[in-house]
Amino acid sequence: MIVNIELSGGLEILFSNKKNHQFELSGDSIPLKQLVYWMRDNHVKERPELFVENGTVRPGILVLINDTDWELEGGIDAIIEDGDTVSFISTLHGG
């Protein structure tokens, strides 16, 4: 399955400064939690604690699945399917 990932609000810095990614994963669907951990373990280049904290996406990161708030889709337990787009948008900014 192919999953499209969009990163913005500064999160792209953790992922080689790339805003858009396309990942090919096995299976027809996976839980979002599995995708998040896979991204952390395989693609975060430094400071993974800025992406994942306490078993979920760090507070201050808005997550959208096909432009819908992840909470409406089941939160961290939402099922991601082939062709889905998952957006991670940091709402926290240093100052």
TrEMBL record:
Single GO BP term: protein urmylation
A GO-annotated cellular component: cytosol
Localization per record: Cytoplasm
The UniProt record lists the keyword Ribonucleoprotein: no
Post-translational events: C-terminal thiocarboxylation occurs in 2 steps, it is first acyl-adenylated (-COAMP) via the hesA/moeB/thiF part of the MOCS3/UBA4 homolog, then thiocarboxylated (-COSH) via the rhodanese domain of the MOCS3/UBA4 homolog.
Pathway(s) the chain acts in: tRNA modification; 5-methoxycarbonylmethyl-2-thiouridine-tRNA biosynthesis
Entry protein name: Ubiquitin-related modifier 1 homolog
Record organism: Heterostelium pallidum (strain ATCC 26659 / Pp 5 / PN500) (Cellular slime mold)
